[in-house]
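User: ok so my PI wants both of these folded by tonight, can you help

Assistant: No problem, let's get them done. Here's the first:
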Amino acid sequence: MKTIPILLFLLILTACKSTDAAIGYVEESRYILVDTLALKQKMLLDAGNKGKMTLDKVEILKVLSVGERQETQYLLLASSLGKRLRIARSLHLIADRFYLEEDLKVKSTHDELFFASYFITNDCDEECFPYIAILDGRKTWVAKKTLVCSRDSQCKPETVLVE
């Protein structure tokens, strides 16, 4: 007879649990991540980590796009000590909550590949950074504000699509 109240309690607890897939939120003009450890693990796994990459910091940044026009964008950025490795992902801000593309109920119909990709810079100089550029009306990733890395640059970025 005691099992019925326990089962009922567990059922209510499960039903009341939040199903919001937000990875972060805005609180008093600060950006708070829900679970930094889980995000680091997800980013490494999605980026194809073969056990050689480590991430020490993950944060949400508010940035301005480069290229044709400047627009406010939000970026999930994970980096290693010394910032030699950076993994970035664009975020959606909806009602003071941050979401990855795959966690949205309604997906983007414009720039789908951009929102479904990680941008990785590794073994780069300080100028090499994941920038969001708007070119020909579409969002894309670039590693320099100048939009192009020179041939002799250490900067060798890559884009990885999320499956």
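One down. Here's the second:
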Amino acid sequence: MATPIALSATHAAHTARPARWSALLLAGVAAAAALALAVGDPAVLLERDRELGTLLRGMAAIKALLVAVAVAAVVWRLRQPVSVRLALGYLAGVWAMTAATAAIWQLTAIGAAAALFHAGEVAVLVLAWRDGLWARAGRRR
């Protein structure tokens, strides 16, 4: 039988400090947005078809709201003990959503960006569904 110290060490090896995960999430969101905004020039499409550009930017604004909700939810989740694999999955999903939203705002590779956004969104939702903490938090109310 494992001792309490051994169990504690094993648990610590598979989890990380919540503040580090949240800081990493926010730094990655900023980096993903900056990188995607640095790529491409929306002026070309805006000159050709201003209405389409406005529509696509409106869609990007709606996606930005979804990213903000995902960031808030994942920051909340990362304040609890979490395995490294689960945390990395949450980070990758939110970062993908962020980069895709910024790319759509820049009117760059819209089809690929839309696919990336939805892949990140599905990843975050599947991880949340498989993660038992969300269900336990709902039952505590």
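The chain has seven helices and no strands. Confidence is low (pLDDT under 50) at residues 3-13. Good luck tonight!
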